[in-house]
């Protein structure tokens, strides 16, 4: 026998509505009150290591204006941001930049914004997570957003795209000039 609440919902469906959509359980049971709880539980979407801040001002940088990630990460206090992003309950971020390219499409598309936390040591990589990287390609800086996985080749990491049209690539760790963990992304949709 399936247990149902006053509204005729199974307890499983009721739990989904309450936990995933922040529906007030008392409202579901027919009581007066608001349909949704006042404060959503944002902790369900964070990593265990994240400590959210009630409000922070995240600087948004233009990569073209900074000459790349290496100078930006070396001394971000000397580089003027184009603007600031204010988002409540966000994990601590060092900055934000616009995404260029389609290697992480459909998850990220060109023009989206990624908010990042800089890594100072490659030994701190969380394998499988998404990173913003600066890679030395024959003396030129190549900036990309990729999943970083362990490589079968010694001294390398495997860069993996979301877009199936982009092949995985092994890159020597000593070619990584700067790296940051992607903490959040912002997509602006507009109708023209």
Short characterization:
By secondary structure, the protein is mostly beta strands. It is 13% helix and 36% strand. The chain has two domains: 11-40, no CATH class; 45-186, Umud Fragment, subunit A (Ribbon).
Descriptive overview:
The chain has 2 domains: 11-40, no CATH class; 45-186, Umud Fragment, subunit A. It has helices at 11-21, 25-28, 63-66, 69-74; strands at 52-61, 83-91, 95-98, 113-119, 130-137, 140-150, 156-160, 169-172, 176-186. The longest helix is centred in the first third of the chain and has 11 residues, at 11-21. With 192 residues, it is mainly beta. The chain is globular. Strands 2-1-3-4-9-5-6-7-8 form a 9-stranded mixed beta sheet.
List the helices and strands and how they pair.
Layout lengths: L10 H11 L3 H4 L23 E10 L1 H4 L2 H6 L8 E9 L3 E4 L14 E7 L10 E8 L2 E11 L5 E5 L8 E4 L3 E11 L6
Parallel strand pairs: 1-3
Antiparallel strand pairs: 1-2, 3-4, 4-9, 5-6, 5-9, 6-7, 7-8
């Amino acid at each position: 026998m399936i247990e149902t609440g006053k509204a005729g919902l199974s307890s499983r469906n009721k739990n989904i509505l309450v936990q995933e959509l922040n529906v007030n359980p008392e409202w579901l049971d027919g009581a007066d009150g608001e349909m949704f709880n006042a404060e959503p539980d944002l902790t369900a979407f964070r990593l265990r290591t994240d400590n959210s801040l009630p409000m922070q001002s995240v600087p948004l940088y233009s990569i073209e204006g900074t000459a790349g990630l290496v100078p930006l990460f070396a001394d971000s206090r000397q580089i003027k941001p184009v603007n600031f992003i204010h988002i409540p309950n966000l994990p601590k971020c060092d900055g934000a930049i616009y995404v260029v390219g389609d290697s992480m499409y459909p998850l990220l598309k060109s023009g989206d914004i990624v908010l990042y936390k800089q890594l100072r040591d490659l030994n701190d990589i969380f394998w499988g997570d998404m990173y913003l990287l600066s890679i030395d390609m024959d003396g030129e800086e190549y900036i990309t957003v990729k999943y970083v996985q362990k490589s079968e080749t010694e001294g390398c990491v495997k860069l993996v795209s979301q877009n199936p049209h982009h092949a995985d690539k092994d890159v020597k760790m000593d070619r990584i000039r700067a790296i940051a963990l992607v903490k959040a992304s912002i997509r602006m949709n507009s109708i023209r």
